[in-house]
């Protein structure tokens, strides 16, 4: 059975952080996410791997120029 896609709210609850942190981490730290329409979607296995690799540690990192900027609300 394929892994379901998770929302920002579900990922925030999974990691025990605020939703704003998730949006910041997409933009500044490369949190693995896919934008589907106006919504960001995640595979929790990718998020867990990112955390284990140190993605959530330390200070803010500069976002890649090719990465879509994380925005809330209407596009």
Automatic annotation (TrEMBL):
Residues 7-53 form the Helix-turn-helix domain. Residues 55-75 are annotated as: Disordered. InterPro entries: DNA-bd_dom_put_sf (IPR009061), HTH_17 (IPR041657), SinI_DNA-bd (IPR010093), WH-like_DNA-bd_sf (IPR036388). It holds the Pfam family HTH_17. Residues 64-75 have a biased composition (Basic residues). GO terms for molecular function: DNA binding. This is Helix-turn-helix domain-containing protein. It comes from Polyangium fumosum.
């Amino acid at each position: 059975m394929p892994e379901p896609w998770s929302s920002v709210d579900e990922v925030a609850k999974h990691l025990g952080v605020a939703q704003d942190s998730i949006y910041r981490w997409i933009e500044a730290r490369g949190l693995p996410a896919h934008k589907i329409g106006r919504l960001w979607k995640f595979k929790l296995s990718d998020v867990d791997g990112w955390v284990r690799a140190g993605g959530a540690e330390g200070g803010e990192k500069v976002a890649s120029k090719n990465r879509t900027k994380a925005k809330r609300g209407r596009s």
